[in-house]
Amino acid sequence: ILLCCLLTTASYQGDYFTLSGQGNRFQPDDNAQLLSTISNVDVTASCAIYCLENTFCRTFNFDSTTHQCELYEGWFTAGNFISTNASSIAGWMEINSAMFSSYNASADQCQNSRYLSVDIASGRCKCPARTFWNGTFCLNQ
Question: What are the Apple domain coordinates in residue numbering (predicted)?
Answer without folding.
Answer: 35-73
